Amino acid sequence: MARKKPLIIAAAMFLLAMPVLAQETPTDADIRDAHAALLGLARDDGTPEKDDAAAVYYSIVENPDAPRLVTRLEVGGAPCRSRFMSALQFPNQWATLTFGMVDLRRVTSVIAYASADDMIAGVKPVPVDSEKAVQIVLTGKDLHCSSRMSLSGEAASDPVCSDRLDLTLTDAREKERARKALAIVAGTCKAPAFSKK
Length: 197
What we know:
single chain; alpha+beta; 5 helices; disordered N terminus
């Protein structure tokens, strides 16, 4: 319990540091980008193809022999829940499909770290709004669930749920996306991690 108190204080300070974002009503595009940021999509200035219902993200592949990942992300009537379908295609092989869902209302903790090594070891957390933060970990019960199926005819896997989403902040663009995404998790989704206790 003593460990949770600094995290709640850090989350509250993060909210106070961005009152405008927390109070404004985000657009559909803002909400979809928040989900994309939390799923690690459209990094390195990758621009998705968009329509009214979804956005399609392509991984940037410089080596023609490398696998290509294509992800269709949908955010419907419930802005805090997203559905996605990803296809991982290896050259000259069948693709593997992943179907999944994320529910941002389930985020119960948000912890930031100044390095990947600190994150892996789970030591030396920093305030979420710190300039030193380069990794942010969001956790919550069954936060991210998915199942896989191969188009080669293999049976689909049973659904697997993860309690964690990671944000990597390597440049100013990613830091801005992360800030907006966390504001939506806090303000729109009212995630327990940001409730003031």
